[in-house]
């Protein structure tokens, strides 16, 4: 399985992206003003980040896990934790790490400037789940790599986590209307679009909530869960003041945006 990692990740990514695009077209949650005009920059950012990752760390987090495994590094190997326990534990702990990292990127001003590129999207759809500054992507890989080595996470678990992280990011940013009777029980397990949309509100108290990407349990456990925006799903304003205009969505402006106050 691991020797097919790029194919597995690309196949799942493409399948989920196409599915979300189809659902957004069939069952849109909110009307959009810019819609597809944001896509070249959103997809352009992930293309730049992918090139940088291949230049800096071509093996990615799975490669780091294979390297650590070959040397017996990490908590799980040292404690002799069996694979069937280590694998699901690694997925859970890595998801908790992403939750914590997300909160830190909101709390530390210089990191917020990087992460603001993601929040400055004035509309949400599946492409928003790819819209991260390349430097933030590199920092995230470094943090994940350190965690993978520290845990001695099984490479298979790291691959599963990476696939889940990408897929759920596309899903929870999608502009799809999910019936309340489906959304309510679903968000007890995973972060749904209506739950994550609160996080993209212009109101800072709502922006600093619902940090989870995959599992919703961390927001409930650590008191950052907000069920609905104060203005409602259709009335809430998405984005960051001063960065909503179409000109601000150009990729050159997104790349230099962290330099602005």
From TrEMBL:
It is found in: Membrane. Pfam families: FA_hydroxylase. This is Fatty acid hydroxylase. The chain crosses the membrane at residues 6-23, 43-68, 80-100. Its main location: membrane. The lineage of its organism: Bacteria, Pseudomonadati, Pseudomonadota, Alphaproteobacteria, Acetobacterales. Residues 89-224 form the Fatty acid hydroxylase domain. Keywords: Membrane, Transmembrane, Transmembrane helix.
């Amino acid at each position: 399985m691991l020797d097919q990692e790029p194919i597995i990740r690309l196949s799942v990514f493409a399948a989920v992206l196409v599915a979300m695009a189809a659902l957004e077209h069939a069952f849109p949650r909110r009307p959009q003003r810019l819609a597809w005009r944001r896509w070249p920059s959103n997809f352009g950012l992930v293309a730049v980040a992918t090139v940088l990752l291949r230049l800096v760390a071509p093996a990615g987090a799975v490669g780091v896990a294979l390297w650590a495994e070959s040397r017996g590094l990490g908590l799980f190997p040292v404690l002799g934790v069996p694979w069937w326990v280590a694998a699901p534990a690694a997925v859970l702990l890595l998801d908790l790490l992403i939750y914590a990292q997300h909160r830190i990127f909101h709390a530390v001003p210089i990191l917020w400037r990087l992460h603001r590129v993601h929040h400055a999207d004035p509309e949400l759809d599946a492409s928003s789940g790819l819209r991260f500054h390349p430097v933030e992507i590199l920092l995230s890989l470094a943090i994940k790599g350190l965690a993978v080595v520290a845990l001695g996470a099984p490479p298979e678990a790291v691959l599963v986590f990476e696939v889940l992280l990408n897929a759920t990011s596309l899903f929870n940013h999608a502009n799809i209307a999910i019936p309340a009777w489906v959304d309510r029980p679903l968000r007890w397990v995973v972060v749904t679009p209506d739950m994550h949309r609160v996080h993209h509100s212009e109101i800072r108290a709502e922006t600093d909530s619902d940090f989870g990407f995959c599992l919703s349990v961390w927001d409930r456990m650590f008191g950052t869960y907000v069920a609905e925006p104060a203005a409602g799903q259709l009335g809430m304003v998405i984005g960051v003041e001063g960065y909503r205009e179409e000109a601000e969505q150009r990729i050159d402006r997104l790349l230099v945006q962290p330099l602005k106050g």
